[in-house]
């Protein structure tokens, strides 16, 4: 049975890419249809798998400034051909759900209704490091993209949401029902490793919307030791802002990420995320999370048991929480036990069972039931 996977951009490693890795563990012979692929920025993790790249991948700016190609992305994703496949599974944060499958079963795992179209348009454009005329052009094209996105949301046969938070927004913006399957955590990789050390840890893409600046400012004021992992367009500015108690690690391997999670007194999570795999990875390493009280963190962090919340997305609110935070009150085994509920094997079993059920339902009348 031939499976096609669809993913927007393989030019970073984040939660969506973790999900794609899990899809490929379920269906290693699947072909990944991707708009833009950058081997270096994904550490070669996807190199061994079959891929079909869109026409955008070879265009100027595709690998350095892929957002310049935003107006072409609906056209590019609609050009993928699935004639030779039986099932299409889109791993969607924006454009992937808009593929045209021409009657083939299409299941969309939705990380979020397209944020820059439905909830964060102004913030998204303002935060981009582009000249004013480019931002003006982006604002002009957004109404077209929003209409296309709504139309594209009708194409999947089924939606799977990564959280109850996202399930509500799929219903609100797209009028579609969905089931919830929480994102996967590799609890075998992310396990307690080494002794606790005297620092806090944050890991993220370093982009304005990730709110790393508020963490830097809070730790600047308190003088507490902080390690920051990740890279992005805001890295240079934040490095200049940070004081000597803050260390930037850049992009790090999963093995070092496990070490930092395990050693840290707490993992800081300042963004309002749709689900958020990293807080679960930290908890899998037995480390409590200090998170902004919003979004998917409310579904994955158990207050006073596996972590704590701050209620305003400001340096002052985070400072107040840090001043009262006591790492000694947390039981690291209990924290890890909570994370085991999100183990990737559970995710894979649920996804595989759902797709098989729907595929067998499509084929049942023809007597062609089988395993994917």
From TrEMBL:
Q: Which residues form the Glycosyl transferase family domain?
A: 192-325
Q: Give the signal peptide, or none.
A: none
Read off the SUPFAM superfamilies from this record: UDP-Glycosyltransferase/glycogen phosphorylase
Segments passing through the bilayer: none
Q: Where is the Glycosyltransferase subfamily 4-like N-terminal domain?
A: 14-188
Pfam families recorded for this chain? Glyco_transf_4, Glycos_transf_1
**What domain of life does the native source organism fall in?**
Bacteria
Q: Which GO terms describe its molecular function?
A: glycosyltransferase activity
Q: Which PANTHER family match?
A: SULFOQUINOVOSYL TRANSFERASE SQD2
Record protein name field: Glycosyl transferase family 1 domain-containing protein
Write down the species: Candidatus Doudnabacteria bacterium RIFCSPHIGHO2_01_FULL_46_24
